[in-house]
Amino acid sequence: MNVTVNGRHTDVASDATLADLVAQLCARPTGTAVAVNGDVVPRSAWSRQRIADGDALEVLAAVQGG
Amino acid sequence: MTSHADVFRIADATFGSRLIMGTGGAPSHEILESALKASGTELTTVAMRRVAPGEAGSLLDVITGLGIRLLPNTAGCFTAREAVLTAKLAREALQTDWLKLEVIADERTLLPDPVELLDAAEQLVDDGFLVLPYTNDDPVLARRLEQLGCAAVMPLGSPIGTGLGIRNPHNIGMIVEQAGVPVILDAGVGTASDAALAMELGCDAVLLASAVTRAQDPTRMAEAMAKAVEAGRLARLAGRIPKRFHAEASSPMEGRADLD
Asked: Which of A7, B120, B121, B231 could form a disulfide with B83 if both were Cys (CB 3.0 to 4.6 A apart)?
């Protein structure tokens, strides 16, 4: 299944959830947020929400700034 | 002493320090931690960016370890749409509805885009965010932002990262004079006297980052800024003498000896 994660085409398993994807990207999900196709998905829903083919995901965290 | 009773408020929150130090531009987390500590700040900004694989999340550890409140920003957003989504991601990631709203017009000047800024501010206030907008030094725009329900207004002294200080002190004075919410001088501070001037003009606080993080000795500059903000605040409360064209002696002219 092909999705876009932070602007990069990525192959994920067909039964993958958002929680799986975030765990792959970062060791600790603290301070991380996810938007799927432009909508924020609350952390409490990550383990339920399955990723669909063609989804565009943004996974963001806090960095130095401002 | 005055400074103990002189509490700085934003909405329902109170702060002992009127210096808000951002985290941008620090060469390392260690230097940032030392500078944040020296600044005495109780509120600090962070930006939201795409997670890079394998990156350790120690920035938040540094900030929370110092007991400093987080103020996420929407730096790098050019439209209200981008800023609103970034704000919602920041709220989810950091569990705060406080937001430094930044909507810039172009990369060369980094000046706020007033049209997009007002649009974003309205949407975010309606959505329950506590919005602290980075704005131009324009009294009319500041008034519009306050009317929309922003919890403070944060006019620039000069463009971000220039260190040019306060280019239009008169406008900052006009914003202060009319504002019913805190005025926070944001952007353009280069050195301690700029921060002191902001406070002397009546600003409630100063927000800066580069002036400290990119100084040759960030920790020492952070201490300088803390003292400048405190000195400027005391001078404002004390009430400066009026400027005069001619001299006015402070020693009495009467009672002088006849020495001619």
From this structure: B120
